[in-house]
Amino acid sequence: MGFGKRLAAPLWHDHRVPTIAVIKEMMDIVEVNGSTGFRRHPAVPGADGGAKDGFRRGRVISPGTPRQLGAFGLFPPPPAEQRTLTPTTQPLPVKAAGDVLWVAFAELCGGLMSTADYLALAAEYRVWVVDGVPSPGHESAEGSAAAWQRFSNAVDVLYDEDVTLFLVGRGGLDWDAGSAHGSALPADRARIASRLSLLGRVEAGADGEAAGSEETRGS
Q: pLDDT tens digits, residue range 84-101?
């Protein structure tokens, strides 16, 4: 991860404070703040090394009913498929690890996983399902600041490696709404929101099912 991403991480902040002071003293800081977020627009194939077609095939699914998941060939794995992976040094309990890596948000982001772990997993598993994703707008035990920072790192890796990502959660999974004051999302939450805006959304209709409710934004 680059210097800018580490600045946003609380664990690195104290180490970077002297560098920030030097930058402010010796450089002119010009804010570029236009009205258009170009990262939210579909990429032109070839303009950035590819249009991230694999990543765009993913979805944000809420609340994650069997019908919603089944529409994408996803079926909650039985307990017999549970495994513990060790991508680098930290163990990671997962619900399944075959054609699809199926893992809970709490396990993927609530422990001690590092960017190196996410890179190793992305190299081996090209389709991920992360379930139990908490609502971004409310801090909770699952959605702590540290967990959201790891989530940010994971999303960056999956985007860069063009891995298909399905996010499943029972609450509202709106990362723009999560930018409100008091959110536990990291300082670079705008990048999370822009990355995930490339994924279509599947939300339950009035009858609690997904019929007619898919929004294909960014797909």
A: 999 999 999 999 999 999
Low-confidence ranges of the chain (pLDDT < 50): 1-8, 42-49, 181, 206, 210-219
Amino acid at 76: P
Largest CA distance in the chain: 60
Quote the CA–CA distance of 60 and 174 in Å, as a whole number.
Answer: 9
Burial profile 62-77: b = 16 or more Cβ within 10 angstroms, e = fewer: bbbbeebbeebebeeb
The residue length of the chain stands at 219
Distance CA 68, CA 57 (A): 15
161-204 pLDDT, tens digit per residue, is 999 999 999 887 887 765 554 555 656 677 888 899 999 999 98
User: Which of these, 9, 6, 1, 2, lies nearest to 146 by C-alpha position?
Assistant: 9
Provide the edge-to-edge strand list for the sheet that holds 127-131.
Answer: 96-97, 101-104, 127-131, 164-168, 59-62, 200-203, 214-215
